[in-house]
Amino acid sequence: MMAMTGDLFDVCVVGAGVEGSSAARYLASWGKNTLLLEQFPLPHCRGSSHGQSRLVRYGYSQSFLTAVMPEAFEMWSDIEKRAGRTLIRRCGLLTIEEPPYDDLSRVITNVRGVGQECLQLTGDEINKRFPGLSLSSSECGAFEPRSGLIQADLALTALREQFVEFGGTLHDAEKVLDIQPGSIISIKTNKNSYRAKRVIITAGPWTNNVLRPLGIQIPLTLQRITVCYWPVLSPHLYSPDKFPGFIFSSPLGNKNMHVYGFPMFEYPGLIKICPHAGVSIEDADNREGPSRGFDQNYIDSVAELIKARFPGVKPEPSITESCIYSVTPDHLFVMDRHPEYKNIVIGAGFSGHGFKMAPVVGRILTQMVLGEKVSYDVIPFRLSRFTSPKSSL
Length: 393
Ligand SMILES: Cc1cc2nc3c(=O)[nH]c(=O)nc-3n(C[C@H](O)[C@H](O)[C@H](O)COP(=O)(O)OP(=O)(O)OC[C@H]3O[C@@H](n4cnc5c(N)ncnc54)[C@H](O)[C@@H]3O)c2cc1C
Known about the structure:
By secondary structure, this protein is of the alpha+beta class. Helices cover 25% and strands 26% of the residues. It has 9 helices and 20 strands. Strand 1, helix 1 and strand 2 form a beta-alpha-beta unit. The longest helix is centred in the C-terminal third of the chain and has 16 residues, at 354-369. The protein is globular and about 65 Å long. It binds flavin-adenine dinucleotide. Residues 14-20, 37-40, 47-49, 54-55, 175-176, 202-206, 210, 225, 227, 323-325, 350-356 line the site of flavin-adenine dinucleotide (FAD). Flavin-adenine dinucleotide is lined by residues 14-20, 37-40, 47-49, 54-55, 175-176, 202-206, 210, 225, 227, 323-325, 350-356.
């Protein structure tokens, strides 16, 4: 259904990436008259949510992140059932770390703490179990058999389709230009003007542009991430039913950069192995801005890791693509009400972690905007942590 100029909504959600689409779906499923506005024609690949797969795992060293994952898996399962197609592949997830294994022991404690299996493996045990890896004997791993991958593009489509099925109004190719606060909020786009009792802003790397008329800015750094796919020389070692998703949680060499990856269900001849960091960019609308040459440093570092650790992978990428991370100074999200306008809620800074948790993020943002009690510990996600010296992070 199309909305008309002046229409009044219970909630308007700005940005139809995975976080905004999840929030909008949740609101519509609760019978809220919801408008979801997206600046680009859908589907698009200009923000952070597009692409083939994302890791979905329980294993975080921060217990408040692990705490949301059981419900996130449950909610993805419901979305999957309703969509009638597979979204999650449970190929397992291996976190690999060098001594002193600080993160690893917390990961294991946290995963087991939410009732999930998590095996502690030595480097030699990992090499035996997954011969596509060649770890040193000092490396250790935590293996979560029930974690795995989510098919990002399919999941995103399912969220948006279900939002519309639940009665939501989705307008793509419609950019929000201005938001005027009040008990009834005015939203001006390049095509129309609407009114809403509440607004959720989930504009990914464009968040500060949307927030400008509302008088606040979040310390977000935008990073262009080079997603690399490498040719597999020994496909039997890296087939998705035998090889897990993986994260090297110790920074690589002298670079402050982690590496992660997974086998490709869609293209069994390739494996995704990527840097979990990238080149800073000023503006999401000028993603290719700073010289492309800088990305080569990241690709070269990953190629070195492949030479040392992945005996059946050719250390020259056959495909590279771009995606954007929005990163806060502490690498944690922002999920909070606007400090002055309590009927405006912001969800931003989801960096390289936000996909897996999106259904729960959507629920939390909904609870915040409706003024309900929030189900989780959201203190680590407060906006005030960037301004208050008493921040309890
Ligand atoms: C390469 C890569 C790998 C990743 N891997 C993982 C992983 O393995 N596991 C995991 O959990 N997470 C992963 N992530 C992170 C996850 O994908 C992101 O955290 C998540 O997609 C962020 O979603 P978002 O909705 O906040 O942002 P976006 O997807 O960018 O959505 C924001 C939307 O708002 C729209 N918008 C902006 N301004 C306006 C406006 N003025 N008017 C209307 N619309 C507007 C944009 O067009 C965009 O569609 C990865 C991310 C990348 C880039």
